[in-house]
Amino acid sequence: MKNKIKFLFIxxxxxxxxxxxxxxxxSLLFGKSLNSPNIxxxxxGGLNRSYMKDIAESTGVNNFHLGFYFHILIKNNSYLxxxxxxxxxxxxxxxxxxxxxxxxxxxxxxxxxxxKKLSYLYxxxxxxxxxxxxxxxxxxxxxGVRTKAKDIFDVSSLGGDQEYxxxxxxxYTKLDAGIMAGxxxxxxxxxxxxxxxVNYYYGLVDVSKSSETEIxxxxxxxxxxxxIGVGKTEN
Length: 235
Description:
The protein is α+β, with helices and mostly antiparallel strands. The protein contains three helices and ten strands, in the order ααβββαβββββββ. α1 (2-17) runs antiparallel to α2.
């Protein structure tokens, strides 16, 4: 019962703050007690390369991501894998810039490059199946809440050093959703150990408010998972 109460507190606290600082505090305070025979709790992070599937002239952009995870035992080697990717950017780059209605600005950036970056808090809810307690597959829905959105105008490819960032969060919907699936490998033959893996997120929601543009997010996540508060004697 205590573990369930602490779990609910963690989710509420993290969703309320939307900051990576909260997850560090949570891990320090509750990491050990949240790990039980049926629950594994830890930190997860790494690199992700994101795309905007419906913008043909765009290319992928690299980002960092950071969050926490729960593996909740269902039966035998089957788990519910959830948590939150708190620090997570998606978007794309390589697009042509657009006019902002200022002649001097438009002249400076007209041949530059546009990068779109959207920040989300993502909550995956996946079925997680392990094989020989090492390899695992997981898949399920992924839900996102947008916190920031910006367009970055850049002319460095033209030999300049000018960069301008424009807040465009009002041009995007607040929510995102799609399917996430992937494969991972546990580094030790134990129920709870560090793991590495890759997940792919395929967005199903058009996050653009413009009737002329359809934008759906996608991202490949390369990650490492580190359980928190797992004792040396735990098996």
